Amino acid sequence: MKLKLIYASSVLLLFVLLLTACGSDESNSANQNDNSDSENNGSGTTELEILSWWTSGGEAEALNAVIDGFGEEEPNIEIVNAAVAGGGGSNSQAVLSSRLQGGEPPAVFQAQGGFDLLRWQEGDYLQSLNDLYEENGWRDVFPETIIDMNTIDGEIYGIPMNVHRNNMIWYNKKIFDDNGIEPPKTFADFFEIADTLQSKGIIPLALGDQNPRWSTLLFEMALLNELGAEDFSALWTGNEDFDTAKIRSAVNTFSRMLDYTNENHSSLDWQDAADLVASDEAAMLIMGDWASGFFMSRDLVANEDFGWVAAPGTEDIFNIVNDSMGYPTGVENAEEAEGFLAYLGSAEAQAEFNQLKGSIPARTDIDVSDFSEYSQSAAEDFKNLELNLSLAGGSPVPAGFLSRVDDAINTFVTQRDPDMLINSLEEAKSLLQE
Ligand code: GAL
After folding, report:
1. Ligand 1 in contact with 345 (CB < 6 A)?
2. Has residue 426 been placed in a domain?
3. Is residue 74 a part of any domain in this protein?
């Protein structure tokens, strides 16, 4: 037993080391060579690490903007960018898990509000942020829905950085205009457009599901279209049947979507798929609005180079992905770390970060009139549409359930066996009731 454990920990350590090495290639790290946690390096500068999976396009620029912004205020504190590549975060989460368990926490880490963040509380790895909320008046500026996603038993464990809308289609304006195509409102429109584009040798739907999370996102859109926000959210209570005509129909829609994707999808990540749209090779991408941050980082112009529309049948829904910052127990230099956390929740940081990220600020007191045209519309949509939590965003379900869904989706993408997918969902259901 002991031997097995030692073997398992060595394999995990090796995996984590590999991931950290891969991640640092892509991250715009402020200090790539230092992976230590918070420390004073002897030169009077205190180092604090921030762990995230923001390594490409707008997300990396957004992170760097807040690191630089804080650096200007606090020149004696160096923020070490410990981002780990891999969209959707599974690599970064594996590193986080091992560091929390190994007593080597970063000072601050990215997680997604809801189960993804709060699961770390079970191991007593999180510090309550209630005092920081009081000191900074955050209860008055963050929306209740978002605070609730970061709260367990009255203790708040996350500082929400943003609100992303997940249910979006991003399309190449030039391809649409050249082919006289209007953005789809229904899946019938979507498949008609996809046929037209495919017959002209254009990839209709860009996909990069190296991390199966991005295929799960497509399945999520098919489910939302079929069920609507309320019945979709009810699925995560664990009391609903997954073997229904509507869910089978969503599986069929999902399968049809896959017929229109690029052949090399399994070797690409989300930003590579976004690149196919940016470079006029593919017409559409179904992705959260970090894609708009990505297109802006490529200097593409909204409504000239790229356009957007809600995923079919979801125009009244705002499917939320929320990134929040957690504060682990056992962080050295707590005073400096808390200063950094306070900065991340400030109006200044949230404005800088979200303009580049493609999301809207989680704070409601920020004037977004300087934000992109897309973000201004998203800010209105957040106020007016029906809010629900994204499955692929890791908020409404335990991580164990989501990883079973990702596995089942991954198998479905190659085997296209609806019964197998439905059975896997049924089997995973017990994880929702725990
Ligand atoms: C999501 C995250 C976003 C974005 C995206 C791609 O999980 O919430 O902030 O970064 O992954 O990496």
Report:
1. no
2. yes
3. yes
Closest ligand 1 atom to residue 52 Cα is 10
pTM of the model as a whole: 0.91
Could you report the average pLDDT of every consecutive run of 10 residues in the chain (434 residues)? 36 42 38 44 86 97 98 98 94 97 98 98 97 98 97 98 98 98 98 98 98 98 98 97 98 98 98 98 98 98 97 98 98 97 98 98 97 97 98 97 98 98 97 87
What atom of ligand 1 comes closest to residue 213's alpha carbon?
7
Domains of the chain: total: 2
Whole-number Å distance, alpha carbon 311 to ligand 1 midpoint, is: 18
Helix 213-234 with 245-258: angle, nearest 10 deg: 160
Which is the closest atom of ligand 1 to the Cα of 87?
A: 12
Domain hosting 84: range is: 46-164+321-376
341 & 284 share domain: no
Q: Is the CB of 114 under 6 A from ligand 1?
A: no
Q: 184 and 156, same structural domain? A: no
| 88 belongs to a structural domain | yes
On whether residue 18 sits in a domain, the answer given is no
Phi and psi (nearest 5°) for 174?
-65, -45
- 305, exposed or middle or buried, with CB in 10 Å at 0-12, 13-18, 19+? middle
